[in-house]
Design a protein that fits this description.
heterodimer; A: Ubiquitin-like (UB roll); five-stranded mixed beta sheet; 7 strands; globular; B: alpha/beta; FAD/NAD(P)-binding domain; 2 domains; seven-stranded mixed beta sheet; 19 strands; 27% strand
Chain lengths: 103, 375
Amino acid sequence: MRIKEHPILNFKEERKVIHFTFNNCPVTGYEGDTIASALHALGIKKLSESMNLKRPRGFYCAIGNCSSCRMIVDGEPNVKTCVTLLKEGMDVKVQSNKGEIYD
Amino acid sequence: MSKYSLIKVKYMIKKDLVIIGGGPAGLCAAKMVAEANQSCMLIDRNQILGGQLIKQTHMFFGSEKQYAKTRGIDIAEKLVEDVKKYSDLIDIWEDTTVVGLYQDKVVTVLKNERYVKIQAKAIIIATGASEKVLAFENNDLPGIYGAGAVQTLMNVYGVKPGHKIVMVGSGNIGLIVSYQLMQAGVNVLSIIEASPKIGGYKVHASKVRRLGVNIETSCTIKKAIGHENVKKIETIKLDENWKEIEGTEKEYEVDAVCIAVGLTPLTNLLSMIGCQMKYVSELGGLVPIINENHETSIENIYVCGDASGIEEASSAIVEGYLAGLHACKKLGKFHPKNDELMNEYHQQLTNLRNGPFGEKIRIGLKKQGVCKDVS
């Protein structure tokens, strides 16, 4: 899903690989990715579930407005993954409730 | 216990002027303010300034005064560079989200997981807009994105939204993003438009038509089909009364759908502080009532750019300049070329809103209470 050639932009440069986990599976993205863009590049579009009917949800706006991309990141729920930069070792999980804060 | 509750900053930061939003409007306001030798704080929730310009790979139209023939990404760079020249006067807080705005002009922000309070004398709100959604069956399936989201994903992060896509909406955003999808190597199956006429400029429509993309008017999306991702969509034709015509359903196999049905001003902070608001459909929804100085119903609370009504980035730039000039003038700092610039910018706005494509905006602004800058 990565763009390899583009008439205006240049995405070819070698970027640093970032390792993280998605639902406990080890996966990778690039430095500069947000969590959501890295997942999307891997073909993962479902990021959360609706609170009551548990319908699958992906991001809608990609700029932090709609909250449809909220996930559990390093144990913290309701992280807007479309605007949160990916970091080495992050533990990212699909969220399916309102979110609870654990110690 | 959450980590947030443990960290509190007890003191209040004092600032004459706080600008919320570092897109075209906010950046231009900050530049004018600094040129008038007035200090300010510029707050933006993103890691980088520039607002939505950072994903606009197309060249802008209009007048060279608002950077026509320059790509949005390059305009962003230029505007940010201008603001960073005044590091002594403009205190830039990036990656900072405003979480509260109060009538005594206290701004509360979340910065580095710390809750910080700022007492301002004047505030310029330039929060921009958010994308509208469209009601249809299964419109919440992953793979259905706003047009701006698709632009961000492609042009900022270099990731394709899918391989086969249908664009819903033929306004300028729908047409431009369709073209950019093709530049990224995505197959745009069709552009559908509910109204009987293409919404955007003919030049953009012609560009995608030349590349073989069909623009189907009087047609809307009826439903999306899929389990965890959108797999198919069903479209349907509309009659002259916008009623669905049975038997005209058509299926497309897609892995993404792009919704480009317009923007709505991001006015949460304006509502929070109690500015008088009005629903003006021509300006995208709920907008603040403003006077010709871009001041809201609350003294020293200014608004500019899409937050005060949806227009183009070029208008946001000029509105930003004007809001900046008006705000610092009231604080007692005059720009050395204040009168000259005010006339010039008011004239530029009038020009930008001229012509048949500006008609909707002119009607909207009159409803909003702005009679200046509209001919």
